[in-house]
Amino acid sequence: MTNKSTARRAGLAVGMMAVLASVLPTATTTATAAAPVSGPAATAAPAWCPSVPGHKVDCDRMERPLVAGKPALGTVKVSYAVVRHRAPGLAKGTVALNPGGPGETLIDKAEGVVWGLEGLLKDHDVLLVDPRGTGKSQRIPCGVTDAEYRFGTRAQQRAAVERCGKKLGPKAAGFTSAATADDIDAIRARLKVRKLSLYGLSYGTYLMPVYAARHPESVRNIVLSGAYPLALDTMARPSAQAVSLTLRRVCERSVPVACDGERAVKDLATTAARLRTEPLTIPITTGHGIYKKKFTEDKLANLLFEAASSGVGLEPEKPSLLGRLPHALNRFVKGDTAPLRKLVREEGESGSKLDQAPYIAVVCNDYRRDWSKDASRSERWRQYRAALAAVRPGEHGAFSAKGFTEGTTDAGDVCIGWPGENTPAPQPTKPRLPNVPVLVLSGDLDSNTPDTSGKKAARQFRDSRFLSVRNMGHVPELELSRCAAGVSSHFIRANTPGETSCLRSLPPIAVTPVRG
Question: How many domains is the chain partitioned into structurally?
Answer without folding.
Answer: 1
